[in-house]
Structure to design on (156 residues):
């Protein structure tokens, strides 16, 4: 196929491509989550960090949290300090590596996270309005497969 034909076909496309649709979804999700966690004094990145800590169930270092939340260690360090100031996490020296300070959720952090997760879950439900439970599961499986295919590290 010639370059001119490829360009012509690309310009005739009237429907947005998958990448565009997913990018728009990401923008809307990020904005929606930001709106829902702000009343609890959190940013979306702080909410994500609390969620990662909760799902992991064990203390995590700043670098471990950064990898799991797709952030730089420097950015995660700022998030950790903010969460610690708010009393949502605590950090204690690692028994074998005194300079490492793994983070865990406090009771207050668990309460705030539960309230935020409820608000975010309602938002997700509004996004998936009209989809059956089966279709919701299929959609989630497809999104996770796409992320894995691109090396995003989402578990099965």
């Amino acid at each position: 196929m010639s370059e001119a034909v490829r360009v012509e076909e690309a310009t005739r496309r009237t429907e947005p491509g998958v990448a565009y649709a997913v990018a728009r979804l990401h923008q809307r999700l990020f904005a929606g989550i930001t709106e829902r966690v702000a009343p609890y004094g959190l940013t979306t990145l702080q909410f994500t960090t609390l969620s990662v800590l909760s799902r992991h169930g064990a203390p995590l270092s700043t670098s471990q949290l950064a990898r799991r939340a797709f952030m730089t260690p420097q950015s995660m360090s700022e998030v950790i300090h903010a969460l610690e100031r708010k009393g949502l996490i605590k950090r204690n020296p690692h028994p074998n590596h005194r300079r490492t300070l793994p983070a865990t959720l406090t009771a207050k952090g668990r309460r705030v996270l539960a309230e935020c997760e409820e608000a975010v879950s309602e938002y997700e439900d509004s996004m998936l309005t009209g989809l059956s439970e089966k279709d919701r599961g299929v959609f989630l499986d497809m999104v996770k497969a796409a992320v894995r295919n691109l090396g995003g590290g989402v578990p099965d």
Summary: The beta strands are 89-91, 103-105. Residues 107-127 form the longest helix (21 residues). The CA atoms of residues 50 and 117 lie 10 Å apart. The mean pLDDT is 89.
